[in-house]
Amino acid sequence: MEEEDQQKILDLVKELVNRVLSRNPQNPKPSISSNPNSPDFQNSLRYAIRILSSRLTPSIAPDAAAIAESIKRGLATQGKSSQALNFAELYNKFASKTGPGSINNKWAVLYLLKIISEDTKVAQNAPNSTLLFPNLGLNELDLSNESRGSRNFKRGEKGYDNGVLLVSKDPENLREIAFREFVNLVKEENEVSEEVLVRDVLYACQGIDGKYVKFDANVDGYALSDLIKVPRATRVLVRKLCELGWLFRKVKGYISESMDRFPAEDVGTVGQAFCAALQDELSDYYKLLAVLETQAMNPIPLVSETASSGNYLSLRRLSVWFAEPIVKMRLMAVLVDKCRVLRGGAMAGAIHLHAQHGNPLVHEFMRSLLQRVCSPLFEMVRSWVLEGELEDIFSEFFVVGQPVKAESLWREGYRLHAGMLPSFISQPLAQRILRTGKSINFLRVCCDDRGWADAATEAAAAAGTTTRRGSLGYGETDALETLVVEAAKRIDKHLLDVMYTRYKFKEHCLAIKRYLLLGQGDFVQYLMDIVGQELSEPANTISSFQLAGLLESAIRSSNAQYDDPDILDRLRVKMMPHGTGDRGWDVFSLEYDARIPLDTVFTESVMARYLRIFNFLWKLRRVEHALIGAWKTMKPNCITSHSFTKLQHVVKLQLLSTLRRCQVLWNQMNHFVTNLQYYIMFEVLEVSWSNFSNEMEVARDLDDLLAAHDKYLRSIVEKSLLGERSLSLYKSLFALFDLILRFRSHADRLYEGIYDLQARTRASSLSSQDKKQSRRQTRDKSSEVGSWLIDGRKALEQRAGEFLQNTGQELEAISKEYTVLLEGFLSQLPVQQHVDLKFLFFRLHFTEFYSRLHPGT
Amino acid sequence: MFNIVKFVADMDSEAAKTARESLDLAFHMSNLLDTGLDRHTLSVLIALCDMGLNPEALAAVVKELRREPVSSSLQNSSAPIAKP
Fold this sequence. Notes:
Radius of gyration of chain A: 57 Å
Shape of chain A: rod-shaped
Strand content of chain A: under 5%
Helix content of chain A: 55-70%
Oligomer: heterodimer
Order of helices and strands of chain B: HHHH
């Protein structure tokens, strides 16, 4: 078998030599040399056999694919890309030929082709150098042949094994020698070969200490040990590459730290998402490292003849490969640093700040990271907006709930946590999100309503398909906004519907206006009439039950009886805490029980403001009522006519002047009170109410409604002089009221005296005329009357004179005080900020009477 | 005369076909690479490769033989062919 093979090979070689020689373009006499018996042929054959029998082993591993790849690349770099493609195709076909009859040693064939092709190229290039000496012509070939031969011979003597074929027959050998020397130099300089360093760097980048590259705590990073002799450039390069390892350690450390902490402490869902996203990035990174490692193992067959074909990966190649991962890893490390103390929305916000980057690589990376990080947050928003659920066990959401009573649920139940609000959600949007969820909760807790679920589903449908669980993500802020807007619109509308129709918000507001703000005139008049007596008693003797009964009868006898019983049911009497000496007037007030859910609008503080307004209006009404009462006693004007004709002239004159003073003063007061009353009722209450109703119409959510109501109330308070700024005005107004009430009692006394006097004079005149008749009459009267009679006319007139004088003086004093107070009040009015108070001034001072009276002021 | 075609003549036609196609493909590649080998030479080379000869050495033979007719620089030793 062996023999046979040998023979076969020999035959084949003979054939080969024959073929090659016969086609040799340089052979001047091809026909002769192809003769198998010619000496040339024999020589060539011997030569060929010697070459073949040399122990030249292939310098590469038998890998057909790698060689094919190398050839292809070679073609491609020569600019023959179409040929490269052709070649790749051919190779694929060639490689697929298996089985009997196919070529076994495919790699050898390919390698052979490759080398021959390269040789031909070199041979084609080589004569170019000889063209430098064109005059030498063909002889030059012989010359060079000879010189080459002799050089080869010399080399052989120099100790090169003569069995080894040297590829150093052309001038390029010089380059190769230099190159080899350089390699040796490099080897001397480096104790460690580059392959080892590359491997170590790859290890370091996974956070593992290599053989030479180790983590150095002093410099806080991976570095080559100082003991190893490597050039400075390599050292720096290794240090640079190992930055990746340092960053990796940091990120990895954070992840494992967070994960270790997880069951014990609350890392938060956002934190967990962040860790997961980082973990994914790291596994991508691991993949890259694995690929690099296999490449580092695989030397690529680049050039066969140079000694330093080396490994595919050098440190420099690594630095190229690491360019992208290092950017990402750096980003991650920065984020890890930032987020170490942050959580929830704050964390997302912090990461978002880094996402604003011009580099598309960074931008894309951050986007995908944020998408993961924000998904729990967006999920929370979704369930909050559509279901009103606050699934936030780690308190990461920017809406914070706290347990409160139902009435303050709207105002205090939920609030925005500014720290947890990520910056990609704008403040108005956050407010809207807060309100929508709050509305749902309000409907659920306070209104006991289930209709919102339909509204939410509708909203989800309207916002499109993007509302499925977990489908909202970072970067889809628009989608989020649409969802929130849709949900807010529907839920708010539903809430207002419930408030208006089911809980009759408007009706209740109107009822409060009518009863607490005394808008229902007949009711107030009647109430004033019947409770007046009761309220004049000291406060501690009044029973509120009795007053409640009076209120009931006032309702029943006024138009209020036709009102909704539910509304009337809520109207109560309230006695305020009273001190000693307080009259019933001071403590009486009405109260309206708003109940859930309206107590969200009519909170205690709001009701307290209503109470203040009520007290003021009640006092105003009382003063008006008092003045009307005074008028009733003054009304019978017959006093002056004939009954006093018999009086002394002086007394009569006194009487007349006192009466007149009283009338004038009453008129002044009445003018003031009537106008004030008019102003309050029409300029203040009605105008504010009208504004409020308009705003109620356009209100889109409960907050609008609350704001409108608040504005309504505030405008009433301001305009009715109850505000902070008009405190002194308010005081002088109350002084005026008190004065008017005092006037009423004086006027009452005056008229009482006058009626008395009238009665006496009539009696005395009668007694002189018709004693019998009067005796019977006077017998029924009190003993005092008797004394009058006894004292006689003179004494009577004297007493009347004294009485009138006293009363006149008192009235005079009141009048003076009133004038002073009113002037003070009027002078303060124009100074007020509120423009409506100028109308009041105008109205009170229409004819400029007061300024003409006292031109000085 | 030894060539691949003859070599496979006694094999079944399937194998012959494969062999021919392989040779065709190799020849195409050889042309693409500008080796200057003709079909026959290539078939001889492939046969030698399949016999397990070192392709580098074969390449060297082709190169050397092409460059020059054997000169006197060669010494007259004829070692037996060793299979590498």
